[in-house]
Design a protein that fits this description.
With 175 residues, the protein is of the alpha+beta class. It has a domain of 104 residues: GIY-YIG endonuclease (3-Layer(aba) Sandwich). The chain contains six helices and seven strands; from the N terminus they run βαβββββαααβαα. Strands 1, 2, 5, 6 and 7 form a five-stranded mixed sheet that branches. A hairpin with a 4-residue loop joins strand 3 and strand 4. Helix 3 crosses helix 4 and helix 5 crosses helix 6. The longest helix is centred in the last third of the chain and has 15 residues. It is globular and about 45 Å long.
Length: 175
């Protein structure tokens, strides 16, 4: 079962239909994700490089949406799991430690959080071949539709409302 979707799968669908597809898609438990999983898009047999990744809790609620536009997924997703409060790119892990009320200033909180998030899921939306502005808009669209808690710990930005009946591709391009 794949935890990777291709942005081309969304062509002709409404935003609402894409959200429904994502919600019903398999999310790979974090404890089962391997480095190899993040290297290859099996459906195209090409390197998995650019797009959006989403972390879901064990209730299938989207907690974080990130983009990968200049590095590979293996590098970017791995950076989220830096095991120290001093890591600058471990946003998901750092904010999860804080959200769960663990010791966020010490290494112990990072160790303590791992078993608690082992069943959290990862979903990747492959957008290889798309330029950075498109991927930025793709990430923004999912921020608007999911309002992921860990992306905006200080409150959700004042994005304009999005009509979810709109064609997905048109919505991404209009942001």
């Amino acid at each position: 079962m794949s935890f990777k979707l291709n942005v081309s799968d969304f062509e002709g669908l409404s935003v609402e239909a894409v959200v429904s597809l994502i919600n019903s898609s398999y999310k790979k438990p974090l404890s089962e994700v391997s480095l190899y999983d993040l290297l290859l898009n099996e459906s195209t047999n090409k390197a998995l490089r650019h797009g959006v990744y989403m972390y879901f809790n064990d209730k299938n609620e989207c907690l974080y949406v990130g983009m990968c536009s200049s590095s590979h997924f293996a590098q970017r997703i791995g950076e989220h799991f830096g095991m120290s409060p001093k890591c600058r790119m471990n946003t998901f892990l750092k904010r999860t430690v804080e959200m769960l009320g663990l010791k966020d200033k010490e290494y112990d909180g990072y160790v303590e959080v791992l078993p608690k998030i082992s069943n959290y899921g990862l979903l990747i939306i492959n957008a290889n071949g798309k330029k950075k502005p498109y991927i930025l808009n793709l990430e923004k669209l999912f921020h608007i539709t999911y309002k992921p808690e860990l992306n905006f710990p200080k409150g959700f930005p004042p994005y304009k409302a999005l009509d979810e009946s709109t064609d997905f591709t048109s919505a991404v391009l209009s942001l």
